[in-house]
Amino acid sequence: MDRINSQSATTGVVVRYATLGEFFEALAAVRGVNYPVFNGTDFFPYADRLYSYWSGYYSSRSALKWWTRYNEAFQQNVETLNAIAVSRGLREPSLQMKETLQVGRRANGVLTHHDAVSGTSEWYVVLDYCNIASSGMATVAPLAESAAASLVGAADLDFVVNDSILATLSPSNPILVVVHNSLGWASKR
Question: Mind listing the pLDDT tens digit for each residue in 143-167?
Answer without folding.
Answer: 988 888 888 887 666 665 556 666 7
